[in-house]
Write a structure and sequence with these properties.
The chain has 115 residues and is mainly beta. It has 1 helix and 8 strands; from the N terminus they run H-E-E-E-E-E-E-E-E. The chain has a single domain, classed as Lipocalin (Beta Barrel), CATH 2.40.128. It is globular, with a radius of gyration of 13 Å.
Length: 115
Amino acid sequence: MRLIFSAAIALLMLTGGAYAADAFANFYGNTVKITSPAGDRAVVINEDGTYTNTMADGTTVSGTWTNEDGNACFKQDGSDAEPYCTPAEARDVGESWEITAPDGTKEQAALVAGN
Protein backbone atom coordinates (compact mmCIF):
# COMPACT_ATOMS: atom_id res chain seq x y z
CA MET A 1 0.00 0.00 0.00
CA ARG A 2 2.87 2.37 0.79
CA LEU A 3 3.97 2.19 -2.83
CA ILE A 4 0.52 3.06 -4.08
CA PHE A 5 0.22 6.00 -1.72
CA SER A 6 3.69 7.20 -2.66
CA ALA A 7 2.72 7.07 -6.29
CA ALA A 8 -0.42 8.98 -5.49
CA ILE A 9 1.59 11.67 -3.75
CA ALA A 10 3.89 11.99 -6.72
CA LEU A 11 1.03 12.21 -9.16
CA LEU A 12 -0.87 14.70 -7.09
CA MET A 13 2.05 17.05 -6.97
CA LEU A 14 1.80 17.29 -10.73
CA THR A 15 -1.27 19.48 -11.02
CA GLY A 16 -2.05 23.13 -10.50
CA GLY A 17 -3.14 26.46 -11.91
CA ALA A 18 -1.54 26.02 -15.30
CA TYR A 19 -3.78 23.00 -15.86
CA ALA A 20 -6.89 24.18 -13.99
CA ALA A 21 -9.27 22.93 -16.69
CA ASP A 22 -7.73 19.43 -16.53
CA ALA A 23 -5.17 19.08 -13.76
CA PHE A 24 -3.53 15.98 -15.24
CA ALA A 25 -3.49 17.08 -18.88
CA ASN A 26 0.32 17.12 -18.93
CA PHE A 27 0.49 13.52 -17.70
CA TYR A 28 -1.63 11.69 -20.25
CA GLY A 29 0.67 9.62 -22.44
CA ASN A 30 3.58 10.08 -20.02
CA THR A 31 4.92 8.22 -16.97
CA VAL A 32 5.82 9.21 -13.43
CA LYS A 33 8.98 7.26 -12.50
CA ILE A 34 9.47 6.89 -8.75
CA THR A 35 12.73 5.82 -7.13
CA SER A 36 12.61 4.65 -3.52
CA PRO A 37 14.43 2.34 -1.13
CA ALA A 38 11.69 -0.24 -1.83
CA GLY A 39 12.51 -0.18 -5.56
CA ASP A 40 11.63 1.76 -8.67
CA ARG A 41 8.11 1.91 -10.03
CA ALA A 42 6.20 3.60 -12.83
CA VAL A 43 2.79 5.27 -12.62
CA VAL A 44 0.59 6.12 -15.58
CA ILE A 45 -2.43 8.41 -15.20
CA ASN A 46 -5.06 7.86 -17.86
CA GLU A 47 -7.46 10.48 -19.15
CA ASP A 48 -10.43 8.19 -18.42
CA GLY A 49 -9.93 8.52 -14.64
CA THR A 50 -7.85 5.38 -14.14
CA TYR A 51 -4.22 4.82 -13.22
CA THR A 52 -1.74 1.95 -13.17
CA ASN A 53 1.24 1.52 -10.89
CA THR A 54 3.91 -0.98 -11.98
CA MET A 55 6.14 -2.09 -9.11
CA ALA A 56 9.84 -3.00 -9.29
CA ASP A 57 8.98 -6.73 -9.48
CA GLY A 58 6.64 -6.16 -12.42
CA THR A 59 3.44 -6.42 -10.38
CA THR A 60 0.82 -3.95 -11.55
CA VAL A 61 -1.95 -2.45 -9.47
CA SER A 62 -4.61 -0.16 -10.80
CA GLY A 63 -7.39 2.08 -9.62
CA THR A 64 -9.25 5.29 -10.24
CA TRP A 65 -8.45 8.92 -9.58
CA THR A 66 -10.47 12.07 -9.20
CA ASN A 67 -9.49 15.72 -8.92
CA GLU A 68 -11.76 17.82 -6.74
CA ASP A 69 -11.20 21.24 -5.18
CA GLY A 70 -7.44 21.18 -5.77
CA ASN A 71 -6.96 17.67 -4.37
CA ALA A 72 -6.31 14.52 -6.32
CA CYS A 73 -7.61 11.31 -4.79
CA PHE A 74 -6.48 7.81 -5.76
CA LYS A 75 -8.44 4.66 -4.95
CA GLN A 76 -6.85 1.26 -5.58
CA ASP A 77 -9.12 -1.33 -7.20
CA GLY A 78 -10.14 -4.08 -4.78
CA SER A 79 -8.98 -2.20 -1.70
CA ASP A 80 -11.17 -1.29 1.25
CA ALA A 81 -8.81 1.57 2.16
CA GLU A 82 -10.07 5.12 1.88
CA PRO A 83 -8.86 6.99 -1.21
CA TYR A 84 -5.51 8.70 -0.72
CA CYS A 85 -5.92 12.43 -1.30
CA THR A 86 -3.30 15.15 -1.40
CA PRO A 87 -2.95 18.72 -2.69
CA ALA A 88 -1.85 18.91 -6.33
CA GLU A 89 0.96 20.87 -7.99
CA ALA A 90 1.82 21.26 -11.70
CA ARG A 91 4.88 19.52 -13.18
CA ASP A 92 6.42 19.45 -16.65
CA VAL A 93 7.83 16.54 -18.62
CA GLY A 94 11.50 16.27 -17.68
CA GLU A 95 10.97 17.69 -14.20
CA SER A 96 11.92 15.76 -11.07
CA TRP A 97 11.08 16.38 -7.43
CA GLU A 98 11.22 14.81 -3.98
CA ILE A 99 8.16 13.27 -2.40
CA THR A 100 7.53 11.93 1.07
CA ALA A 101 5.64 8.66 1.40
CA PRO A 102 2.99 8.33 4.10
CA ASP A 103 5.51 6.42 6.25
CA GLY A 104 8.01 9.32 5.97
CA THR A 105 10.31 7.67 3.41
CA LYS A 106 11.86 10.16 0.96
CA GLU A 107 11.49 9.24 -2.70
CA GLN A 108 12.35 10.84 -6.03
CA ALA A 109 9.75 11.32 -8.75
CA ALA A 110 10.23 12.35 -12.37
CA LEU A 111 7.76 12.95 -15.17
CA VAL A 112 9.12 11.29 -18.30
CA ALA A 113 7.80 11.30 -21.84
CA GLY A 114 5.93 8.22 -23.02
CA ASN A 115 4.45 5.17 -21.35
